[in-house]
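Thread: sanity check for a docking pose with zinc ion

Original post by kr_44:
Hi all, I'm comparing my docking run against an independent structure prediction. Below are the sequence and the ligand SMILES. Could someone generate the full complex and paste the structure tokens? I mainly care about where the ligand ends up relative to the chain.
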Amino acid sequence: MPWRDLYGNRPGQLIESHDDASRAVPPSVRQRGLRTYSRHREHVLDRDKYICQICWLPADPSAKQTDDRYPTIDHILSVAFGGDDEPDNLRTAHLWCNVMVGDAGLVNDELVRTGTRKRFS
Ligand SMILES: [Zn+2]
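Reply from moderator J.T.:
Ran it for you. Here is the predicted complex with zinc ion included:
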């Protein structure tokens, strides 16, 4: 019998389909709705044409993951308030803008937009 890990994946197996990708996430994480949205990343970035939906400036696909201009996926209604991981609730946002708006969405988009445009100009 071939060796499989806890989630039914063989060692070194490529994760190709969405089903496989969600199986690769531990059930405890999947239940909390964390990180499963990452499977929509390419679709959302493509749909938004890499334009940050908070400040409307383009994100930089070649930026490092720690760079302010790195394109991230933001939940429009945060998971903490019952938002889901479907593309309709996801949007492209600079790492900077995503952090500034925050998980709870306590800072409004317009405030962040003004600050970001100064920062990135
Ligand atoms: Zn932005």
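Confidence is low (pLDDT under 50) at residues 15-22. Hope that helps with the comparison, let us know if your pose agrees.
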